[in-house]
Amino acid sequence: MGTRSLKHMFAAVAVSALALAAAHGAASAGEIRVGLVTPLSGPIASQGIPFSKGMAAGQHLIPGVNGHTFKLIQLDDESNPSLSTRNARKLIDEDKVDVLVGTGGVPGAMALASIASESKLPLVSFTPLFLSGEKAAWSVTTAQPASLMIQAVVDTMKANGVKTVGYIGFSDSWGDLAYNTLMDEASKAGIEVVTNERYARSDTSVTGQALKIVAANPDAVLGGTAGTPGALPYIALADRGYQGAIYGTHGIINPDFIRVAGGTAEGLLAPTGPAVVADQLPDSHPSKAVAGEFKAAYQEANGEEAKDAFSAYAFDAWKVIADAASRVDPSIEPGTPAYREALRDAIFQVSDLPVTHGVLTFRPGSPYGADDRAAVMVKLTGDQWVLQK
Amino acid sequence: MSLDIALILSVDGLAAAAIYLLAGLGLVLVFSVTRVIFVPFGDIAVFSALTLAFLEAGRTPPTIALVAILAGLTTAKECWQLIRQRNLSRLPRILLAWGALPLIPCIPAVLAAGRDLPPAVAVAISLGLVLPIVPLLARLVYQPIADASVLVLLIASLVLHFLLSGLGLLFFGPEGFRTQPLLRGGINLAPGLFVSLQVVLMIATALLLALLFFLAFEKTLTGKALRATAINRTGARLVGIRPSMTATLTFGATSLLAGVVGILIAPATTMYYDSGLIIGLKAFVAAIIGGLGSYPLTALGAVAVGLVESFASFWNGAMKDVIVFSLLIPALLVRSHYSSHSDDGAEEEV
Amino acid sequence: MGRARRLPLWIPALAAAMAALPFMAGSFTISLVNEIGMAALVVMGLVLLSGIGGVTSFGHAAFVGIAAYTTAWVNTELGLSPWIGLVLALAMTAGSALVIGALTLRLGGHYLPLSTIAWGLSVPLLFGNMTMLGRHSGISDIDPIALGGFDLMRPEFVFYLVWVLVAVTALFCHNLLNARMGRLIRAVRGGKILLASVGADIFRVRLALFVFSALTAAVAGWLYAHANRFVSPAPFSLHASIDYMFMMVVGGLGQLAGALAGATIVIAMKSALQDVLPLVTQHAAQIQSVVFASLFILLLHHARGGFMALAERFMQAGPAHGKAIEFPVEPLARRAMPERGTLLLSVENAVKRFKGLVAVNDVSFDVKAGEILAVIGPNGAGKSTMFNLLTGALDLSSGHVEFMGRDVTAMGQRQIALMGMARTFQHVKLRPQMNVLENVALGAHARGNCGYLRGGLNLDGDEERQIMAEAALQISRIGLAGQEHELAGNIPLGTQRLIEIGRALAADPVLMILDEPAAGLRKPEKQALAELLLKLRESGVTIMIVEHDMDFIMKLADRLVVMNFGHKLFEGRPEAARADQHVRAAYLGNAA
């Protein structure tokens, strides 16, 4: 191809982009626009892709409320908070979304919360958020607060007579968060945290860190990790003959983790939302029915079985939006500042909403809506997560 | 730190060093023959590891499609060039060399996918599938700019890395895979020092391949042709060595090395679509310690990188990579000290 | 690149259009344009450093990060104003660049780019592991920049600040490139021997350039921190560094305007791909990087010069013109020449060994002020090696050289050049992308003293006029008046040798060392050259010359030194050389 045709190609791309930008701007009346920012590539794509599929399941199940249809517009932030910001602005500005949803990774989600309060539209996240003041007035998350989950872990540890615990986590914001929460909860329970080892998701070996933990010989080890890269420490600990109990966080609950960890994570105890063990829940549990709906919707929307724990959080975000939108005064048109404000108010009035991961009640001042119904402990037995009573 | 721990860390470091050694050899080979700094080496290793994982899981490896697409693109490009030159007599050869030959390994892969395969067969199929990838990519990407400066070639390499990791995500998805160990069990070298056979296999394969590599390069005619091209391209052409042929040969050897790296590393760790870059970069540190030219020094560099990495992960896991990359500083200082006197530093225009 | 032009009319027009943008576009477009501006700041530094200076860096996002984190930290922890943050960010970045540069910039070839990858990877990792810097979660709630009691909170307001800074930086870079230090920057690729021959130290130039480019990145980092009001390690990763490099290549290596074009094209195209691809495929996000990479490879294959090369093909390049040379009130000061006939240079028992080979073996001779001394001998006699020993380009294995009464044996090339020894090269070392005037002006480098700051701020007018007048004078002396604004690369090789003589003359030398100046010249040109050299001798300049054309030499030289196989065969008057048996044997033996 000559440079000439290359020039033509560039021109074509530019022209089509402009045309599209113009097309995007025109919102059709009556549509509630949901803007999703999520990492579909980059280091945390393994969270972002399930989030995207969970949203698709939500849209499949609840395509509209009050005569308005939902329109979902999704952008990839490549696991980079700068791009989360840029994409949020794009969604707000060009796509005129009424509500933002996203993203994987705490820094990116926090960046979205800033944009949400600055642009005065609600954000429903599925990642832990730490907000105060004006920012807290616009954002909620369907994730359980880390303290709730880690507390469940520490309670189990205490019940099992654990006195010392070793920590190994990702060297990223999730690893930091899990460690800090563990330090808080453990000191309350009188358990001593004896190591703080870190590794990168892409590392090929954690032998050194595992040796250090084995040398410290704690009663139990907690991994502050997520997904398949979270399996590495358990494999290394097993290789080094560690005999103590092993614990994990809710980030690792997915079948790919079991596949990669092989037998080495047998007996692993971890907190999770009820969605993961929905079939083992008593019928009275509020999440049981919703989890069933989710599984069916996921299957139909994505043509595959829901196996991970992330997609359910995104589905819950959809439920929250749908519930809130159904309570917005029908006379307010979507796409207006009044609608966004009303939607925000409705989100903060969400009360006892059963979702896949427990029951959500949002109140102004805090982004979290989960209570202890959202945390259960599960044990890895064979290749199944078994609910612990 | 007790002696036990030091020994275990050393074994772990040597296992990593085996990987860096093979990767480093590939990088040095490509650089010396073609002046290409082949950043995407690790991505190719990832392709081979994930292909094997897919075969083991009874799924059809998407690598087949990749090879077919690349072969199609390359053939189309070559044919187009011939048509423009009105040199149709060479058309059948081109079709055979770029269109048909790379597709041969796809046939057993298509037939075998979904069946329960013996490990050796799965490994052979994976290696076969990866083998044509680098030569095809090189023909598509590097050959049209073979005369460009090292910098332009380096930029092309980085772009190629992004291209391949993008394809990796598209084809293999974001989740990690770990393959079955080729050898199970292990030996007790000392009390408390259990070495798995897989690690022994890694180190032994690396040593054996490195030795073969060395012999092939020093003793065979092809090896000498490669070396001649490395030393003087114009001179090599004058004595009848075709640089494009040696380049294809080099890239083929690199492909195979990357394939072996992927097969060896996949049972020892979880491989992701984007695991390649960091493996490639660490192999670079080894290759740079060897001055991007010396095979024995590269081996030494690989051992240094592997051991430093292993011990650093014990002392400070989070800063491990910073420590490994800072190994470059003394290596580069020594190197610049020895090269500064004769080197004028005048550069080619881009 | 390079030719000083008047400010074209389109610049004010563009500025006006930019000023109106916030009133027409939405806040997303504005923040996208802001992002382009910040990237352009980084890429401008990179263009100077990598595109022009040839120092490749795959780690510049780390500098953006160092500045962003510095200002974020002092703002949130110490409560200092963003403006103090700017000063500290610049200082911190410059300090880091000095350390990194001192460690790596001596490296040649491909080692340097690879080592930049290493620190480009390490620095963001450090950010993520420092508790002080908020580890991986970063630092949030950074204050917006306040300007006259007014917070620049919204992108529309930051917009003006960003683009004023882009414009100021672009102007500074443009001025700098056309100033005394800029000529040096553009000559860096000529290698250290060329720079030392005009009295400059290549390492210092590269280091200064490196720090300068880090500073433009720091400005971008400061803007980023206060515009986003949040920093975390991801935006400063190796990936981001490589993106900056891509922008530079897309824009066009070595073109200042290319920085802006590259940043715009890359960022706008990624944004456009994000819109277009979902229409075609479900896996848009994953395909995006594949499509981008493929387009980039096509660019490398078909338009390696980037956007600016394409643009130049479109815009009919007008006839080369530069600023008219104004004659200054006062010409550059001249050196006092040593008195004719006094001892200027003496070589005692000079030996140079290259591993086993002895290229110069125990050679001694003297040069007196005001004479023309020719060194002749068959090919491989060691003449050029001898010249390299005298000028300090090579170290002696043993022996002594004294120049103007000082022992210069151990001195570097640069100090010797500064003492008044100017040279030309057997393999011409001109900068093909600079015009004749600039190439010659490079020779007068050591006679000026305006640095980077005065150059960039355009406060060097008087000195520039002096240097340009001097260069123009020397160009007319070598008979090339009227060709001042031709690119040196477009000039025939023989004439290029004359330009090298002009460059040497511009240094106001005491001793000129000419390595085969007449090679490639036609007869009348040789005649003119001989006349020029004789005139120079009249004015007190001493000349050493290596030449193969015997007629030329015999008419010109006062004395000859004849070398063969590294030995001195003969020293004396040309007539005596003709009669000397050894000399005849050497030449006849060589011919046979």
UniProtKB/TrEMBL annotation, chain A:
Protein family per UniProt: Belongs to the leucine-binding protein family.
Highest taxon above the source species: Bacteria
Coiled-coil region(s): none
One Pfam family it belongs to: Peripla_BP_6
Transport recorded as keyword: yes
The species this protein was found in: Zhengella mangrovi
Alphabetical keyword list: Amino-acid transport, Signal, Transport
Record has rRNA-binding as a keyword: no
Classification via PANTHER family: BLR7848 PROTEIN, LEUCINE-SPECIFIC-BINDING PROTEIN
Residue span, Leucine-binding protein domain: 31-347
UniProt name for this protein: Branched-chain amino acid ABC transporter substrate-binding protein
Any one of the GO BP annotations: amino acid transport
Signal peptide, first to last residue: 1-29
Automatic annotation (TrEMBL), chain B:
Predominant cellular place of this UniProt entry's protein: membrane
Pfam families: BPD_transp_2
Membrane topology, from the record: Multi-pass membrane protein
A single Gene Ontology CC term: plasma membrane
Residue ranges of the TM segments: 6-30, 37-57, 95-114, 120-138, 150-173, 193-217, 247-272, 284-308, 320-338
Name this protein carries in UniProt: Branched-chain amino acid ABC transporter permease
One GO process term, biological-process aspect: amino acid transport
A GO term for molecular function: transmembrane transporter activity
Locations listed in the record: Cell membrane
Record-stated family: Belongs to the binding-protein-dependent transport system permease family. LivHM subfamily.
Keyword annotations from UniProtKB, A to Z: Amino-acid transport, Cell membrane, Membrane, Transmembrane, Transmembrane helix, Transport
Superkingdom per UniProt: Bacteria
Organism from which the protein derives: Zhengella mangrovi
Alphabetical list of PANTHER family matching this protein: ABC TRANSPORTER PERMEASE PROTEIN (PTHR11795:SF450), BRANCHED-CHAIN AMINO ACID TRANSPORT SYSTEM PERMEASE PROTEIN LIVH (PTHR11795)
From TrEMBL, chain C:
Coiled-coil annotated residue ranges, if any: none
Subcellular location, record wording: Cell membrane
Ribonucleoprotein in keyword set: no
Membrane-spanning intervals of the chain: 12-33, 40-63, 83-105, 117-137, 157-177, 207-225, 245-269, 290-311
The keyword Signal belongs to this UniProt entry's keyword annotation: no
Major subcellular site: membrane
PROSITE patterns listed in its UniProt record: ABC_TRANSPORTER_2
Entry superkingdom: Bacteria
Location of the ABC transporter domain: 345-590
Swiss-Prot/TrEMBL keywords: ATP-binding, Cell membrane, Hydrolase, Membrane, Nucleotide-binding, Transmembrane, Transmembrane helix, Transport
GO molecular function: ATP binding; ATP hydrolysis activity; branched-chain amino acid transmembrane transporter activity
Membrane-topology annotation of the record: Multi-pass membrane protein
GO cellular component terms, semicolon-separated: plasma membrane
Listed InterPro entries: AAA+_ATPase, ABC_AA/LPS_Transport, ABC_transp_permease, ABC_transporter-like_ATP-bd, BCA_ABC_TP_C, LivM-like, P-loop_NTPase
UniProt cross-references to PANTHER family, sorted A to Z: ABC TRANSPORTER ATP-BINDING PROTEIN, CONSERVED COMPONENT OF ABC TRANSPORTER FOR NATURAL AMINO ACIDS-RELATED
Name assigned to this protein: Metal-dependent hydrolase
Organism listed in the record: Zhengella mangrovi
